[in-house]
Design brief:
- By secondary structure, the chain is an alpha/beta fold.
- It has 11 helices and 12 strands.
- The termini are far apart.
Length: 298
């Protein structure tokens, strides 16, 4: 009969898996390398399976290790959330909230929400990840993100997640001020231009790709920008075109160098949702932050 797995073994395993080496994990956990190695060895013996392949440059997970990592990291996150949930329900105002936001939300709604939340709960740590929903699915599934505010497109994870509609945003084709094509009135006039967009693998930009295809006016996306900063910098300083939300274009800082094109056929609006795992409950602090997003997205 296998021996009972201990929490320090799980923490050691997850840390080594995330850092890719015993040395890096030992520094992060403030433990000696022999102590960490011993915990991993005891865990492997308890499971009766090898979890790591040792290499000169570090360690990699075995097939068994990959599967165990997904569950072990989720266990640790759920334990952290459970402990913080009790503390907060007893009146404590500390802990950590991990959220994800789309680029448009990061530039518009998020600053006001976070500022208010921080003033109300200065001792709560907040981590913010930015990107499309498709890039946040792994962290949502592992419990490493409490929720995300993002656009949504039907996919294989629908049965794992909850989607609550918050707001619609208008999107437009965007160019720098003075762009030679800023007076264009149709997508077909812009097909010869250079374009940059985020990856079309998910959410609004996947819908947009399908709409362009149906219009027989699909632009050639020669540069894929996965961050808002790289995208807006490229548009503002070159002749690249992109698609951004109108409220981003209206930003007093960014908007000075960008212009929205007045095309004859409007682009589809983007619907933003508050998205979280279906089988989890937010802690009081996470729930309060989610409520602030609901308030500011009206």
């Amino acid at each position: 009969m296998p021996s009972q797995i201990k929490m320090h073994q799980l923490r050691a395993f997850v840390s080594v898996a995330r850092h890719g080496s015993i040395r890096a994990a030992s520094r992060m956990m403030n433990l000696s390398q022999p102590a960490l190695t011993k915990s991993i060895k005891e865990l492997e013996e308890s499971l009766g399976a090898r979890l790591f392949i040792r290499r000169r440059q570090g360690v990699t997970l075995t097939d068994c290790g990959e599967g165990f990592f997904k569950r072990a990291s989720l266990i640790l996150e759920e334990l952290r959330v459970a402990q913080e949930d009790i503390t907060q329900r007893l009146g404590g105002t500390s802990g950590r909230v991990n959220i994800g936001v789309g680029a448009s939300i990061a530039r518009t709604v998020m600053p006001e929400v976070i500022d208010r939340f921080h003033r109300e709960f200065p001792n709560v740590k907040v981590r913010i990840a930015e990107g499309q929903l498709v890039s946040m699915i792994p962290e949502l599934r592992q419990g490493e993100l409490d929720f995300t505010v993002n656009t949504y497109y039907q996919g294989p994870f629908d049965n794992e997640l909850l989607y609550e509609k918050l707001m619609d945003k208008e999107y437009r084709v965007v160019a720098r001020r003075g762009h030679p094509m800023q007076n264009a009135r149709s997508m077909k006039e812009l097909l010869h231009c250079d374009w940059t967009l985020p990856t079309p693998r998910g959410s609004y930009y996947k819908l947009l790709s399908e709409v362009f295809s149906e219009m027989d006016a699909e632009p050639n996306i020669s540069v894929i920008c996965e961050t808002f900063m790289s995208c807006t910098s490229l548009i503002a300083k070159t002749d690249f075109l992109s698609v951004l939300s109108v409220d981003v274009i209206s930003d007093p800082v960014i908007g000075q160098s960008l212009v929205a094109l007045d095309l004859d056929v409007p682009l589809p609006t983007a619907t933003f949702y508050l998205i979280q795992r279906r089988d989890t409950t937010l802690t009081p602090m996470s729930a309060h932050l989610a409520q602030l997003f609901r308030l500011y997205c009206r």
